[in-house]
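job 3f2a | input accepted
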Amino acid sequence: MKIISLQFLNFRQFYGKSPIIYFANGEKNTTIIHGNNGSGKTTI
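job 3f2a | predicted structure (44 res):
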């Protein structure tokens, strides 16, 4: 699976629609989701 973009709608601290986050589109297919413990990384 390759993540192209991400947008939140009423997710945790994001109320309403968040701006669309676009990921780099290159040859590598690795996506790293980084954040503090308890911030919702696993939920994404």
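job 3f2a | Residues 12 and 39 are 9 Å apart (CA to CA).
job 3f2a | closed
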